[in-house]
Design brief:
The protein is mainly alpha-helical. It has one domain: Up-down Bundle (Four Helix Bundle (Hemerythrin (Met), subunit A)), CATH 1.20.120. It is built from ten helices and no strands. Helix 4 runs antiparallel to helix 5 and helix 4 packs across helix 6.
Length: 256
């Protein structure tokens, strides 16, 4: 199932793993496996990628990074197939993503010849990129009555859904705010009226989708395979300048 109605889909460059994710989700639909189990699966894949990076097995690292992206899509697909939206799953997914991203960058820093400060700045840029993409995407999904588990403004603890435990929702939301709060605040302040403007056209959403985590991990995978580990941080640091380009385009051409 799509996060958007068919007529409102755009080419999402970060979502290349969706076809395989759908197959995985369908194969798990009538089994005991839950979306949280799949989330745990992508965490394991991410940790295997980190091990391979540290050992210099860049081909295997690339494989596990891409597998992580596929499983990252499969957990949400399984939740939609089972018609079981979940705040626990939503925040567990996000918290796992940012912690793995930090470990990816630390492991690349460890095996490269890059300054730790460049590593930190690149990580901040990576997270701001992803936050802008998610911000615009959630606005689009909410507008067209698509998947609404994610909210445009994550400012209050949501009420647990279905059979969820409110305590788990509270803990995971608190972790989400701790880890993502600064990034959310920066993007909101840079483009605070985005949810009041015109809906972004498909071509612009496709460009912004290069900020999606799936595309980011694909870039890292290719650069590792090409033995360009010393340039990964520089790429993300420089590409972060596109944040201001995309926000500028939205404000100038799609403000109202």
């Amino acid at each position: 199932m799509s996060k958007l109605p068919k007529e409102n889909k755009f080419l999402d460059l970060s979502d290349y793993g969706r076809p395989v994710a759908i197959i995985i989700a369908k194969s798990l639909k009538n089994t005991r496996f839950t979306p949280v189990d799949v989330t745990i699966g992508f965490v394991i894949s991410g940790l295997l990628a980190i091990f391979c990076i540290l050992q210099g097995y860049f081909g295997f690292a690339a494989f596990f990074l891409i597998l992580k992206s596929i499983l990252d899509a499969a957990d949400g697909e399984l939740a939609r197939l089972n018609e079981q939206p979940s705040y626990v799953g939503r925040y567990l997914d996000s918290v796992s993503d940012i912690l793995l991203n930090a470990l990816f960058f630390i492991s690349i820093w460890y095996i490269s010849q890059t300054s730790i400060w460049i590593c930190i700045l690149a990580f901040l840029g990576l997270q701001l990129q992803g936050t802008l993409y998610n911000y615009y995407y959630v606005i689009l999904r909410n507008h067209f009555d698509g998947d609404t588990t994610s909210r445009v403004f994550e400012d209050t603890t949501p009420v647990a859904l279905g059979n969820e435990n409110q305590k788990y929702v509270n803990v995971l939301f608190a972790l989400y705010k701790l880890l993502y709060g600064v990034f959310d605040s920066v993007i909101y302040k840079l483009d605070i009226n985005a949810n009041k403007g015109k809906i972004l056209p498909n071509w612009l959403m496709t460009l912004v989708s290069t900020f999606g985590l799936g595309f980011q991990l694909l870039v890292i995978a290719f650069m590792l395979v090409l033995n360009l580990e010393n340039y990964i941080f520089h790429f993300f640091l420089i590409y972060s300048l596109m944040i201001f380009v995309f926000i500028g385009i939205r404000k100038i051409f799609f403000h109202r």
